[in-house]
Design goal:
The structure holds three protein chains of three kinds.
Chain A: E1 5-14, E2 22-32, E3 37-41, H1 48-56, E4 63-68, E5 71-72, E6 80-83, H2 95-105, H3 110-123, H4 139-152, E7 157-161, H5 169-185, E8 189-194, H6 197-203, E9 206-210, E10 217-222, H7 237-261
Parallel strand pairs in A: 3-8, 3-9, 6-7, 7-8
Antiparallel strand pairs in A: 1-2, 1-4, 4-5, 9-10
Helix pairs in contact in A: 2-3, 2-4, 3-4, 6-7
Chain B: H1 6-18, H2 30-43, H3 45-77, H4 79-92, H5 101-108, H6 112-136, H7 140-148, H8 153-190, H9 196-206, H10 209-237
Helix pairs in contact in B: 2-10, 3-4, 3-6, 3-8, 3-9, 5-6, 6-8, 7-8, 8-9, 8-10, 9-10
Chain C: H1 6-29, H2 41-54, H3 56-88, H4 90-103, H5 112-119, H6 123-148, H7 151-159, H8 164-202, H9 207-216, H10 220-248, H11 253-259
Helix pairs in contact in C: 2-10, 3-4, 3-6, 3-8, 5-6, 6-8, 7-8, 8-9, 8-10, 9-10
Classes of the chains: A alpha/beta, B mainly alpha, C mainly alpha.
């Protein structure tokens, strides 16, 4: 199944309960290639999460269009799994029950569901915590459950909204390795929202820098490196150059955003 | 233990009427009250009237919970329902539901139905508010996660919104429980031929004050223990909160 | 509906009330149920107007309010005192903690016949019954408030030279005021409800008693008019408390935030 994603001139206006409507995205056009890891990078408020939610089908597409595998999207679906920054785990369900939820929705036979759940718990290194409740887990563990839950239904596309933003630096570094290992084993198309430049360069194949609000695609930078990605990559000068370049772009947009807020 | 101070209170209660500090007519000693209580138990009065009260209370409460949760969650999930029901809630909210007891008697007569209706009306509002606030307060990302997992909207309502709203719903039910006791006893004191309220007032009018105190204490104790039991069950149901 | 201004929200509230009344009128005029079960709102309104004009209901309202507010005042003063004492004096806490914790979930209305036995059938028993029911939320609120006064507030006052007694009046009390007032706001409707039930049980004059008399005479419009009067009074009392709270707590962040 092909999973190329195309954004055609997508605009989005945010209409808050009080106050004036705000143009969040302006004519965003973007291609995400199949099995590519694309990072959406930009200052706060640039609309990168909005773009992700539109792709996920959670927000209505009013202007422009988004196609996945040639077909326009129509609401949320299990072909686009999503992982949120604050985990969004069902607190009344155990780890195992959380992971099983999507499998139950897909109406897979019981034995297969249990087997798959066990597989995923192993994959994210949470053996022994199957019957724990989210309230009993650390931030890193919660996010691993969230990832396992999303992967359970085997979506071709993985949407991640600053998934490691709520974690401390060490846990975040570990999660980077785990994520790359998982993607390495079961390749997927990944759209990853972040404001952390180093994280974007480290994880992604390409980084799309977004402008300050209203969000547009400012520049797309290739961040593949020769050889497989590992922690050593982060110490090369090539890595540092890319980070420097992207940091300059983002910084420029962040200053613009700040200036617009304080005229 | 925490309830130790009740002991000297009980001793004072026994001593004061016996020593003539207060008239034993107005405050029978604890021992007399306990004896009267045992008599009520043996005669079956406690069983008959206690059961009658409990039945009416349980019926009104159960109805209030079911209708209240259904209404509250529907209001949070379907905006036409909210637009329709919200004004009714606004109007009922400042009105003390015990003021509606005479209306219930007009409508349903002096029997059990008016008591059940009074309890139902009293329980309804706290449960609706709890269910509404709980369902409204469910994090958007939980709903989106479920949709992305392939759940249909109706499934999301039952499988995500309702469980997520449980803490607030159960808090509202606890309020409703306390109110149900108040409304039932009030309705039975006002007019009744059966039930604990009837027992209390008829003993009072007949001068059997030791039995009256026994009945009053029974009602108070049941109300207290019902709340404690409910807290226990609520803790069990919400043990995932950690 | 946060997009409406405060004025808009108030207007919407009145609109919903009018909508319900209109529905009531339409329902009654359609005669889905007999006029006895649900007299039209117009009939009830006319009846209420006549009762007010003749002065009958004014006497009832005055009596009910007098007893309810007297009981409320009693509960307020004693409740705040006991609550603060419980927070600050260990012996009081030891003694009162079980009493309060048991008393709170109890249906205290069951004690009405006891109060009648002790204090007779006139005002005293009613007022004390109201006070008994209303005191518990006041105690709990005052207790929590006194307990919760931030230690740093007290310490800074102490280091500035405040004596222990002045500490209570000048720092602890104002800091506790919002929470105490919330307890009073809970206690006021309770006072009204309990007084109404008192009167319904014991009869005589007062809104509750009159409603019961009308019920016995199958005077359905009269009963509904009485209920309407209670609703209006109840709402007025709640609104009055809100206004007093706003005035009293002008300095508090919650008031400042609301007017920001």
């Amino acid at each position: 199944m092909t999973s190329g994603i195309f954004f055609h001139d997508v605009s989005h206006t945010y209409r808050p309960p009080h106050g004036r409507p705000v143009l969040a995205l302006e004519r965003v056009s973007l291609e995400v290639r199949e099995r590519e890891f694309l990072a959406l990078l930009g200052p706060s408020g640039c609309g990168k999460s909005t773009l992700l939610y539109l792709l996920g089908g959670f927000l209505p597409i009013e202007v422009g269009g988004i196609t996945v595998a040639g077909k326009p999207i129509a609401g949320p679906g299990s072909d686009r799994g999503i992982v949120f920054q604050n985990f969004a785990l069902y607190p009344w369900k155990t780890v195992r029950q959380n992971i099983l939820y999507g499998l139950e929705k897909q109406k897979r036979p019981r034995a297969e569901r249990e087997r798959r759940a066990r597989e995923l718990i192993e994959l994210v290194h949470l053996r022994g915590f199957e019957n724990s409740y989210p309230a009993q887990l650390s931030g890193g563990m919660k996010q691993r459950v969230a990832i396992a839950r999303t992967l359970a239904v085997d979506p071709a596309i993985l949407l991640m909204d600053e998934p490691f933003g709520a974690l401390d630096a060490q846990t975040r570094a570990l999660m980077h390795e785990e994520l790359l290992a998982i993607i390495g084993r079961t390749p997927k198309t990944v759209v990853f929202v972040t404001h952390d430049v180093r994280e974007a360069v480290y994880l992604a194949d390409r980084v799309a820098v977004m402008s300050a609000r209203p969000g547009r695609i400012k520049e797309i930078v290739d961040t593949t490196f020769a050889g497989a990605k590992g922690p050593e990559i982060a110490r090369t000068s090539e890595f540092a150059e890319k980070v420097e370049h992207l940091w300059g772009l983002v910084r420029g947009e962040a200053i613009l955003a700040q200036e617009r807020r304080e005229p | 233990m925490r309830y130790l101070p009740l002991l000297p209170l009980a001793v004072a209660w026994e001593a004061a009427p016996r020593l003539g500090l207060v008239s034993p007519d107005v405050l029978p000693p604890v021992s007399a009250v306990l004896r009267a209580w045992l008599r009520l138990l043996q005669d079956g009065d406690l069983a008959v009237h206690g059961l009658s009260s409990l039945q009416n209370l349980a019926a009104g409460l159960a109805l209030g919970i079911v209708v209240g949760v259904a209404l509250g969650v529907s209001m949070a999930w379907y905006s036409p329902v909210e637009i329709l029901i919200n004004p009714l809630i606004r109007v009922l909210y400042p009105l003390p539901r015990s003021a509606l007891i005479p209306v219930m008697i007009l409508w349903f007569g002096l029997g059990a139905a008016s008591k059940i209706a009074a309890v139902f009306l009293g329980c309804l509002l706290p449960v609706v508010m709890g269910a509404f606030n709980g369902a409204r307060g469910v994090e958007q990302v939980l709903i989106w996660s479920a949709l992305a997992a392939g759940a249909k909207r109706r499934e999301v309502l039952w499988e995500v919104v309702l469980p997520a709203a449980m803490p607030e719903i159960l808090a509202g039910v606890r309020n409703a429980l306390a109110l149900s006791f108040i409304l039932l006893v009030a309705a039975e004191l006002i007019t009744s031929q059966r039930g604990m309220g009837y027992l209390i007032s008829s003993f009072g009018e007949g001068g059997a004050y030791d039995a009256m105190f026994a009945a009053v204490l029974t009602v108070s104790a049941v109300g207290f223990f019902a709340d404690r039991l409910y807290l226990l069950l609520m803790g069990l149901a919400l043990r995932w909160r950690g | 509906m946060a997009w409406l201004s405060a004025f808009g929200q108030a207007a919407l509230r009145w609109l919903s009330i009018l909508a319900v009344l209109a529905l009531w009128q339409a329902f009654a005029e359609a005669h889905v149920v007999s006029d006895f079960l649900l007299p039209p709102f117009s009939t009830v309104l006319v009846r209420l107007y006549r009762d007010v004009a003749s002065g009958d209901i004014i006497l009832d309202i005055a009596l009910t309010l007098y007893r309810a507010l007297a009981g409320f005042a009693l509960a307020a003063v004693s409740g705040v005192a006991v609550g603060i004492l419980i927070a600050r004096v260990p012996l009081m806490r030891w003694f009162f903690d079980p009493l309060v914790s048991i008393g709170l979930p109890m249906p205290k209305i069951a004690f009405l016949p006891v109060f009648i036995l002790w204090f007779g059938v006139f005002d005293a028993s009613k007022i004390l019954m109201v006070a008994f029911s209303a005191v518990f939320p006041v105690i709990v609120a005052s207790w929590a408030a006194a307990d919760g006064v931030e230690a740093v507030l007290l310490w800074s006052a102490l280091s500035l030279g405040a004596g222990r007694h002045r500490l209570l009046w000048e720092i602890a009390l104002p800091a506790s005021l919002p929470q105490i007032f919330t307890g009073l706001q809970v206690a006021l409707p309770i006072s009204l409800i309990v007084e109404i039930v008192n009167e319904m049980t014991m009869g005589g004059e007062g809104l509750g008693g009159t409603i019961m008399t009308q019920m016995r005479f199958a005077d359905s419009p009269g009963v509904f008019a009485g209920v309407l009067a209670i609703a209006v009074i109840g709402t007025a009392l709640v609104k009055a408390m809100e206004m007093i709270r706003h005035r009293l707590l002008l300095w508090h962040p919650e008031t400042l935030a609301a007017s920001a």
